[in-house]
Amino acid sequence: MQARRWLLIALAIAAVVLLVGRAATALYVDHAWYTAMGAPALFWERVLDTAILQGGAWIVGSVFAFANLHAVRRTILAVAMPSRVANIELTAMVPGRRLFTATVVAAMLVSAVLATPVTNWADLALVRHGVPFGEIEGILDHDLGHYLYWLPLEETLYLWALVSLVSLTAMVLVLYALTRSLRLEGRRLAASNHVRRHLSVLGCLVLLLLAWSYRLDAFDLLRQGSGPDGLFLNVDHRVTLRVDFLLSYGAGIAAFIILRTGWVGQMRAAFVTLSVVLAATVGLRHLLPAVVTRGDLLGDRNRRDRDYLAARALFSRRAFDVDAMRIVGTDSGTGSPLPLPVQALRDHASLWDRDVLGRGLGSVAGENATSASGAGGLVDAAPVGWTRVDGHIAALRVRRPLASSDEWSLAVVDVTRPDVRDHVIELSVERAGSEAGAWPLIGPGVEGTRLLDQSRAPDIPAATLTTRPSRIAHAWALRDVALLEGDSATMASPVLVTHRDVRDRLRRLAPVFVQGDDVLPLRDGDRFYWVVQLYSASDRYPLSQRWQIAGGIYSYFKLAATALVDARTGRVQLVPVAKPDAIARTWMARLPALFTPAAALPSSLVAQLPMPTESAVAQIRTFARYGSRLDGPVLRHLPDSALVGGAPAPFIVGESAAATTAWSVPLLDAGDQLEGVATAVGGADRATWWLATPSPRPRWSALRNQLQATLDSAQAAVPESARRETRLTAGRVEPLVTTRGVLLMQTVRTTGGDGRVVITRVGITDGERVGIGSTVAEALAGIGALTSPGRPGARPGSASSDEPAAGTAARLYESMKQAMRRGDWNGFGVAFDSLGRVLQRPPQ
Fold first, then answer.
1. What is the pTM assigned to this prediction?
2. Distance from C-alpha of 317 to C-alpha of 296, rounded to nearest angstrom
């Protein structure tokens, strides 16, 4: 017996040592990583906030659990433990001190388990350091920061309290049933006075939590009212909101009545009190608003909600930064990148959007199938990014190998060409070479760790492993015994790179921001970056419209910064917007070392910052529904196909080094007329521009009918023998704000029997004439916008019609060799087919 006891004690001590050791080494490793990234203050902020949250929950939970378990312990007179000495059976009584110790330990363990999920330390950081918005919502007279900072934390505390109370109540009931203090006698539930009083206290706490929930419901009503799309209505303000606070106070008073009546044994009074609370919940909270709204007690039905509709429009514009939209031609604050010179459209406008481009470049599914059969292959590592090659718009494509030993592929694609598969140019970027191993060091979906020699790669931030304690800590925390040696025999200064996934790295450095949908590639000279848009977002902003954006539903969404992650070194730079909101200013004030202003970066890099698609879409939708501060609540809408399949095809705006990419969508009025064009622009400003079309405005259906000639022309060009195997698809109608006015462009793509996608026709209309051709230049010439529809001349790194056939053949042959070296047989086949067409021997 004694030996067994010591064995259990030894096992318990070993378990505690392992848990404490793992926690301590995890803290050591995290501190080393944050220090290497230049953000040690963020580590201490995280540790302090987590300690306050989980430590406070553990202490309060331990006291509450001990009080409940000790109350159960008082009903146990003694605990007998059977024992055996030789052949004699004995019964030993467990001492009271040992029972008390067991109660304390059990309470601490239970509270530790319940406190473990409370990990949202970033919410507490915003509560502690949040910069006030300086705006009052006007209904409950709270600063908007109360909704975005405090309410998320309060809801977390409420949920923790609810789970803790329900869990401990269930545990208490089970223990009382086991001790026979709570039992069934026939059809009657019998309980001792001690049990009845204990359950009365728990019932009191349940009603207090109910009162707390009504308080939270009152605040929640401001963001999700009873009207359409969660509109906060007059009945919500004058009836439901007051009922919530009335029920909150009533439930609090009822809690103490239940405590008093249950304590003295007046169970009938307690039952009546509980019934009144439940009846009031159903009658006042659910039935009363429905009854009141049927009559005219709240005023004329047609007019009583007008002020609340105006409040929705006002708060929605603020929440999605509609008033930050700029007007083409009248905004004096900065130079407008619009309108576009119409002569530059042939080189600045892409014929392919991101969704169609993937099909035009080849089937990724085919590559996966090839790889699954045992051969190597490449798959897209990220969506394509948009860049410039000698002033022409191009797509930057990054693919990763399925076999970890192979190299990644970087290529640019001339998206002004109707056949992109023949215009894929392999690129090279600055790589770390043998010092850092395979490129990239950091990338989307890259897992694992990498051990480097810092003496050969001094610009890579990583945790050092030069000392034995650091190697032990990393080996313990990462469960990698190989790190104990750290390759000290071959490396003069070993360092360890962790958190190599782009999103994971940004999530640790900027947890208060919502990441955009895409991790985009960006190339500046010989440097390569991963770009992610970071947004200040919340679903608790009051009185605002709610949109589904970036994988969530938000009532507040603004661009905060653009994250640049160096693929070779892993360094992170957050480029803030010119006018950051309160959440962004909070993080900038707390951790200024993480942010790099756009003025401190190379202008060529800043010009390539992509358009903030998610915030631009939310901004445009809000502007369409609620108008702006300047023009009032003008109702507009997007065409049905405007944003189907993602953002439209991009184009280049601006001049020289400041030129950047953009995309546009049309907005229609209630009469289906073209109200104007909204354009999302990247670069240093990353703004949305608005151009209202002058009167008389053309009807959208008439413009679509004009462009129908593009599809008719493409159908007429298909030979009769090939029509069964050829499928024609018309693309989206995309507006372009040019010096000639608003031009609408539509492409028609052909999908052959072999799956090859080619754009065969381009149609452009100015509302009067329609130009149709095989290129943008020919279409512009058709409406008199260009005097010569000639193809653009040759340019570095791309092919053109002026390029000699021998040079094209040599380039394609080199692409075949590179694809064969990588084992990329799909790429080899594409280059081979293209070579056959150059030699006038197309594949059969």
1. 0.88
2. 31
